[in-house]
Amino acid sequence: MPDPIEPALHLVSTPIGAARDVTLKALDVLAGADVLAAEDTRTLRRLMEIHGIALNGRPLLPYHDHNGPAQRPKLLAALAEGKSVAYASDAGTPLVADPGLQLARAVIEAGYEVRTAPGASALLAALAVAGLPTDRFLFAGFPPPKAGARRRFLEEIAAVPATLVFYESPRRLAAALADMAEILGGTRDAAICRELTKRFEEVRRGTLTDLARTTEDPPRGEIVLVIGPPEAKAADDKTVEDLLRSALETMRTRDAADAVARQTGRPRKEIYKMALGLRDD
Q1: Burial of 52 (0-12, 13-18, 19+ CB in 10 A)
Q2: Which of 42, 90, 221, 241 could form an SS bridge with 195, CB 3.0 to 4.6 Å?
Q3: Which residue range(s) make up the domain with 250?
Q4: Which residues form the RsmI HTH domain (predicted)?
Q5: 91 and 155: one domain?
Q6: Which pLDDT does position 172 carry in this prediction?
Q7: C-alpha angle with apex 216: 210 to 218, nearest 5 degrees?
Q8: Domain of 215: which CATH number?
Q9: Is residue 4 in some structural domain?
Q10: In terms of C-beta density within 10 A (0-12 exposed, 13-18 middle, 19 or more buried), how is residue 277 classed?
């Protein structure tokens, strides 16, 4: 008999490709939860069958964008009875480009607990293999499908000083790359990550211009686009001095110089020399 699961909504991450990528905790939750819900019940049934987890008469409810309002009261009622509810996305981590957000919010507003069984995520998998900076990133989800809205969307985030991550449809990939090269900057480094963890996994790296030129026929499979941050514009001396004065109020000289060099893109040795001068003053 599986161990009892805490009465709560358990958000269960499921594999994005290889079934063996599921975690032991996820299997425990799927085996022991009183009620199961899934974005795609067929996908969850197949995963459970692969790992030898029987349904044993427990309810397995579909929960997706179209039926969410009708299903949420049923799941909240189960929680009110002190039962445990497990929700699994079609693939990856629930609530990341996934219909589970409204369910989690409703559960929180009703005063019940939300727990997670963390695991696979196409977002994090793409960041791991793209070879681009990961210290700061923005997950921007799916760009709008229509060209005008997509271009406005890209203009809003073009200057964000972080690596950008998008999910995209294979049939819209070429058009999206062309707009990204024009609006975000064709020299920005990028990676097209396709079918991550699956048999035909592929990662193509290059500048946005290069990738836009070489992407014509719609590729097959799931696509994650990772685009490196914009090049930092070197700050003028006055801006650097103002930043240094502020940093020196709370940091040692060396740490202040490091922080301001990262902020401004100016050489660290140059910034450190300026910091020493300000200290002497």
Answers
A1: exposed
A2: 221
A3: 237-280
A4: 234-279
A5: no
A6: 94
A7: 125
A8: 3.30.950.10
A9: no
A10: exposed
User: Does any domain span residue 2?
Assistant: no
SS3 at position 202: strand
CA-based nearest residue to 269, from 249, 250, 281, 254: 254
The values of phi and psi at residue 211, to 5°, are -65, -35
Tokens of 142: 């799916």
Closest by Cα among 264, 194, 193, 190 to 228: 190
**Does residue 147 lie within any of the structural domains?**
yes
Q: Whole-angstrom Cα distance, residue 4 to residue 31? A: 9
Residues contacting residue 68 through CB under 8 Å, at least 6 positions apart: 99, 102, 103
Query: pLDDT value at position 114?
Result: 98
Give the phi and the psi of residue 97 in degrees, each rounded to 5.
50, 55
Q: How far is the C-alpha of 124 from the C-alpha of 232, rounded, in Å?
A: 24
Question: Around 98, how many Cα atoms within 13 Å sit in the side-chain half-sphere?
Answer: 25
Phi, psi angles (nearest 5°) of residue 84 = -95, 140
Question: How long is the chain?
Answer: 281
User: Which of 120, 141, 165 corresponds to the end of one domain?
Assistant: 120
Give the chain's end-to-end CA distance (angstroms, integer). Answer: 73
Residue ranges of the chain with per-residue pLDDT less than 50: none
- The 10 Å Cβ neighbour count of residue 217 is 8
232 part of a folded domain: no
> In angstroms, rounded to a whole number, what is the distance separating the alpha carbons of residues 146 and 154?
12
pTM score, whole prediction: 0.80
Please report where in the chains the tokens 């836009």 appear, as a residue: 212
